[in-house]
Amino acid sequence: MSSSVIPPSVRRIAILGAGHVGPVIARLMFEAGFEVMIAASGSPETLELITQVVTPGVEARWAADAVAAADAVVLAIPLHRFPALDPGLLAGKLVVDAMNYWAPADGVVPMFQGQELSSSEIVQRRLSQSTIIKSLNQIAYQDLEDGRRPAAAPDRHSIGVAGDDPDAASLVGGIVDRIGYDPFLLDSLSAGRVLQPGGPVFGALLTRSEFERAIHTTAVQR
Amino acid sequence: MTTSTTKTPREASGTSPRFPLELGLDTFGDHEHDAEDRPLSHAQTIRNVVEEGVLAEQVGVDFFGIGEHHTDDFPMPAADVVLAAIAARTKRIHIGSAVTVLSSDDPVRVFQRFSTLNAISNGRAEVILGRGSSIDSFPLFGYDLADYEDLFEEKANLFAELLKGGPVTWQGNLRPSLKDQDVVPYTEAGPFPAWIGVGGSPQSVVRAAHYGFSLMLAIIGGSPARFRPFSQLFLQALERFGREPLPIGVHSPGHVADTDEKALEEFWPRWLQIITKMSRVRGFAIPTEESFKFEVGPRGALFIGSPETVAQKIAANLKTLGANRFDLKFGMPGLSPSSLMRNIELYGTKVIPRVRELLAESTGVELPISIPT
User: Which CATH number fits domain B4-370: 3.30.70.100, 3.30.1490.20, 3.40.190.10, 3.20.20.30?
Assistant: First the structure.
């Protein structure tokens, strides 16, 4: 199990990855009132051009600086780059794993291929000094902004939140709620398998009841 | 440092003060069925695509693009060969790829093929480079999808060098280097138009600007308006790299029929079929009818309906995105040749004139060029 300290609350969030997904999550977090930093593999100067236009209000930083200043980190890098990521960078941090192992679309990554474990369990094993919560991975990035609904909306969509640490999961659930989604908590990273590619809710905008039904009828659908 | 021309005040009409409005059609060589819903042969589908390109010119379409695909649903691996056949039977229409999967191709060969197409067509060739939504070329040609980004970066860099003309000296890691290499055929009038198709990554937008390619926004799901920052990013990045503004285009799927009802009735079952198939292969949930309705509606990415419905949506999105080009990806595996030909006819004779009219009527169009840096 991880040795990271769960913060009492989350105010500052670091997003790692500025591809398709990272900037969208950054914008949602910023609009929800969080202090948001974003980092890519390169220098903040290159990234600034992007943040100024695409995610105004979000600060471009070096990855190490962004992580150090953050209460929670969202991992939104391509999964095939994950094996090269230094686990020390994220030691002691609450980490939201928004990555997917999606071999038919993105290719095979040996570290994740043919494993019994869910991809986030593999991420947790490698980032042993961090607390991993699987979330923000299952709705397509192009739907994330328009899929948001206010807390009371009857057609509010669910986002899965899976983790072994209930306090950490509940914190991430709070973030999900604030950006405009109904957090659907799953009590382990292993249970988070339903959120993965090939799972019953991957790529879908579903209300809580639809989400629940989809998970429970997995066997029938596949 | 910017030159004074980048600060040209925008005009009140049209979508861009610098670039003409262009309205095109794209196909992926979607496998066609006959009127009794029996699949035609791949060969017949390809011959039909040639006829579709010829009809597109006859009804006034500006561009006809063919996207590289490698499956039974889209048997279209050699788009440039088909484009050459269309070139030989047309005089005016521009022809090009939509897209060429550059990462699994050789940039020198791509340049040679499109430079040849440019020769055959008297300067009407264009190339749109990108990933597309198809991944089948990677295993086919022995590439690893995990290398996609690195391959694209390096090959886009080489392609930009090739486009300049003259002997090429280039060094990379994933393709043998070139030293003072003469690459023929030379183009007659400088580089032909080259675009990069961008899905959702701002880094790809910056890359297009860096190499001086035009930007083709591939909008196939979700709200097109969310791409507006990408247009702004593109223009600002061009300025940062000391380049003149370049065209911005939009590629989106759709279907035009005589009425909204007919268009939906023809398109929906075919779309559902292909999406269901893809969802099984790739492992994502099958989209609901509700999500389809969103995409068809005014805020979605599917351009389906009567000529008026589709024209209104195109005009609105070109304005929002500050784009001067729209390419409608028409067809869907299983549609019949007659439905496709009718789509092309309506697009050319009704949609295009109506979009031009709507954009000429509108004033105070907010273009990204006016955004201060």
Answer: 3.20.20.30
Tell me the per-residue pLDDT of A148-176, one tens digit each, with 9 for 90 and over: 999 999 999 999 999 999 999 999 999 99
A–B interface: beta-carbon pairs under 8 A: 92
Domains of chain B: which residue ranges?
4-370
Structure tokens at B188: 């007659």
**Do B236 and B373 contact (CB within 8 A), yes or no?**
yes
Q: b/e string for B299-312 if b means 16 or more Cβ within 10 A?
A: bbbbbbbbbebbbb
CB A22 within 8 A of CB A38: yes
Q: How far is A120 from chain B (nearest CA, A)?
A: 17
Least CB–CB distance from A146: residue in B146, B202, B222:
B222
> pLDDT (tens digit, 9 = 90+) per residue, B76-112?
999 999 999 999 999 999 999 999 999 999 999 999 9
Interface with chain A: mutation pick from B103, B136, B143, B203, highest number of A CBs within 10 Å? B203
Complete domains list, chain A, with CATH:
12-221 (3.40.50.720)
Listed by number, the residues of chain B in 247-306 with a beta carbon closer than 8 Å to a beta carbon of chain A are 279, 281-285, 287-288, 291, 294, 299
| Pick from A196, A198, A130: nearest CA to A164 | A130
What number is the ipTM of this complex?
0.91
